[in-house]
Every structure is written in C-alpha cells, then in structure tokens.
Automatic annotation (TrEMBL):
The keyword Zinc does not apply. Residues 67-289 form the AB hydrolase-1 domain. SUPFAM superfamilies: alpha/beta-Hydrolases. Gene3D superfamilies: alpha/beta hydrolase. One of its GO terms (molecular function) is serine hydrolase activity. Pfam families: Abhydrolase_6 (PF12697). InterPro entries: AB_hydrolase_1, AB_hydrolase_fold. Keywords: Hydrolase. It comes from Drosophila lebanonensis (Fruit fly). This is Valacyclovir hydrolase. Coiled coil: none annotated.
C-alpha cells in the first residue's frame, strides 16, 4: 500500500508538472509582452527651454541614469530612434531614455537651422546644456551618423559629463571620395520617393530639399577649409568607455573610418553586422538594442 501511494503521488506530480510547465511558460511570455507594451506606451514629449531655444525631447523609462540619443543629419527623435525609445526602457530599467531634436531639426523650430563650419560642435554644446537643464549633468550617449560625430565631440570635451558612448555610421573626418558622393546625392529629386518620404513628412518637400542642400554644402566647406576634420582632436581626448558598432556594407561612410577609430581607441568594444548598412539600429533593432543595453549595463 505504501508503494502504491508513493507511486500515485509521483504520477500526480508528473501530471501537474506536465500541465503547469507550459502554462507558466505562457504566463511568463505574457508578462514580458505586457511589460514591453507598457514601455512602448510610456513616453512623454515636451519642449525644454535652453538659452532661449525651445528644444523638443522625448523621454521614456524612469531610471536614475541617463541615456541621450543623438540623431543623424536632419534627424529627430522619432525619425531616427523609434525602436530605441520604445524598447530600451525594458532592457535598461535603471535608465531614463532621452531623445532630442537638435536646434533647427524636427520640432525644435524655431530657430532656423544654421550650418557653419562648427555646426557639429554647436550641437554638442547645445546637447550638454540640455542635459544640465534637465538636471542630468552626467549621462551616456547613443549616437548615429552626425549624432555619432557629435557624441565624440561631447565625450572628448566633457570627460566629466559623459559616462559611456556607443556610436555607429560616423567618421571623425571627411575624405575626397565622400565629398564626391555627397555632391552626387545633393539633389533629393534624384532620390527614390521611399527614401525622401520620412524627411518630407517632417519638413515638407521644399524645406527638406533646402536643408539637405545646406548640410551637403557645409560638409563640403569643412573638407575644403578644415581639411575635412570633424572631430579628430576630440577623439584623442576621449576617456569614456566606447562601443563602436558598424554595418559592414554601410554606403554612407568610407571603409577607412572604423579602422581609424579603432586604432585611436584601442580600448573600444566593437561589433560588426556583416550584412548591415547605415541604419543597423533600425534594420536590426532587436539585436542592436540588446547589444547596446548590455554595454550600458556593464560596469
């Protein structure tokens, strides 16, 4: 009788395990899905006055640490970082994610955008002042393309403020082949409608064409008048931990830039997307977000 009772109990345990394990798995998946959806829904968008300029920002998450998202040329919070705004809070619960529209871009208008020889450094200073205004004087940076250049400037010039940075699609200088490529794509009428659409939705067709032309002209002026130097000096001054990500097939930057950065920054963490192009954070958003979240979580 004792053996029979023990056997029955064992069978009941096996049966409960058979029934409950899949159920608990489903409950766990549902909980994670609900957490993800809550993070997607919980963001705020507002204007912050910084030295007389109303800068548009989008915030998600509510952790004590700060992560600033720096967009690319003509970019804004939503055009450039939608998957990061929506997904990173779940991966970085101890961070507040802050995406901004630089002066003259997106919804940070007025002022009218200015493209002088120092426009990268001016954006860098505006971003630092924004974070001070938000009472977040220490922060990390996620910078794409132009935002990666600006991030390097910020980290090189503000070592006491920038804790970590991750960049992709950025180079510290412009070479002759890149100048030719930029001149070839200056006329947005030669772009496909699909390529123009995101920026035309933000600025309208006429203003987008004007802004892009001004950006290209400014970059070419930097090549002509400043030997193409965007931020080479700041790179040599950088002390913060850095993560360089790269799309192996990125058509927007010369192949020499990543090796140059890695030589100057031998301590940098590096990850390459073999089939990736310029927008790896959008094309491979889930994998990209996990990689950068792990970097920003690490000590």
């Amino acid at each position: 009788m004792y053996i029979c009772t023990h056997s029955c109990s064992f069978e009941r345990i096996n049966y409960c395990s058979y029934v409950m394990t899949p159920l608990l798995t489903k409950i766990g998946r549902l909980a994670r899905r609900l957490q993800f959806q809550a993070c997607r829904a919980s963001h705020t968008e507002r204007k912050v006055e910084v030295h007389g300029i109303d800068l548009n920002i989008v915030e998600s998450g509510n952790g004590p640490h700060s992560l600033l998202l720096m967009p690319g040329a003509l970019g804004s919070a939503w055009t450039d970082f939608k998957p990061q705004i929506e997904q990173l809070p779940a991966l970085l619960p101890d961070h507040t994610i802050i995406a901004w529209d630089p002066p003259g871009y997106g919804k940070s208008v007025p002022p009218k955008r200015k493209f002088g020889l120092d426009f990268f450094r001016e954006d860098a200073q505006a971003a630092v002042e924004l974070m001070r205004t938000l009472n977040r004087p220490k922060f990390s940076i996620l910078g794409w393309s132009d935002g990666g250049i600006t991030a390097l400037i910020m980290a090189g010039r503000n070592a006491d403020a920038v804790e970590k940075l991750a960049i992709w699609g950025a180079g510290a200088y412009l070479n002759e082949a890149e100048v030719k490529m930029l001149r070839d794509i200056r006329d947005v009428e030669k772009w496909s409608p699909r390529m123009r659409a995101p920026m035309e939705q933000v600025y309208g067709p006429e203003r987008f064409a004007q802004l892009w032309g001004e950006w290209v002209d400014a970059a070419c002026d930097i090549y002509k008048l400043c030997d193409g130097d965007f931020c080479q000096q700041e790179v040599t001054q950088l002390r913060a931990p850095i993560f360089i990500l790269h799309g192996k097939k990125d058509p927007m930057i010369a192949a020499e830039h990543v090796p140059w950065l890695r030589k100057q920054l031998p301590q940098a963490k590096y990850h390459e997307f073999p089939e990736g192009k310029h927008n790896i954070h959008l094309r491979y958003a889930e994998d990209f977000n996990k990689l950068v979240a792990e970097f920003f979580r690490s000590n």
